[in-house]
Amino acid sequence: MLDPKTNASFDNHEDVVFVGGENEGFAGIIAIHSTTFGPAAGGCRIWDYNSVEEALTDALRLSRGMTYKNAMADLPLGGGKAVIYRINTERVDAFQRFGDAVEKLGGKYITAEDVGATVSDMRAIAGRTSYVAGLPKE
Q: What is the pTM of this model?
């Protein structure tokens, strides 16, 4: 497994979690840059990266950007981001399992839609955790 601290985009991130795996039907990374002002909030990007290292670099950069974005908007949130770089099962199953991973973080990270993710994906995540935003009012 990659050591996030050796990546040039690592910026004293509080936590970097590799989620999923061959038996889980998806693989991704949740990067938590800061929870100083509140739980780390940032979307879940679905992207076809050339390597796990490239996915890690993107997660680190994006999560740092969310820290500054949320702070500048004066929100009571820190910065985080997730990237999913492989889905090799039914999409709903993958996002439910991703929701399990978010739940295990106990509220340190709140996910939402980002590039490649849909409202349906957020609904699947919400079936496993309450730490998800971007759901329609129903």
A: 0.96
- Is the CB of residue 33 less than 8 Å from the CB of residue 13? yes
How far apart CA 57 and CA 105 sit, in angstroms, is 21
Q: What is the pLDDT of residues 58-116, one digit of tens each?
A: 999 999 999 999 999 999 999 999 999 999 999 999 999 999 999 999 999 999 999 99
Predicted local confidence at residue 137, as pLDDT: 82
Q: Which residues sit opposite 13 in a β-bridge?
A: none
Catalytic residues: 81
pLDDT at 4: 95
HEC string for the chain: CCCHHHCCCCCCCCEEEEEEECCCCEEEEEEEEECCCCCEECCEEECCCCCHHHHHHHHHHHHHHHHHHHHHCCCCCEEEEEEEEEECCCHHHHHHHHHHHHHHCCCCEEECECCCCCHHHHHHHHCCCCCECCCCCC
Integer Cα distance of 33 and 12 in angstroms: 7
CA–CA dist 131, 121 (Å, integer): 13
The residue type at 118? T
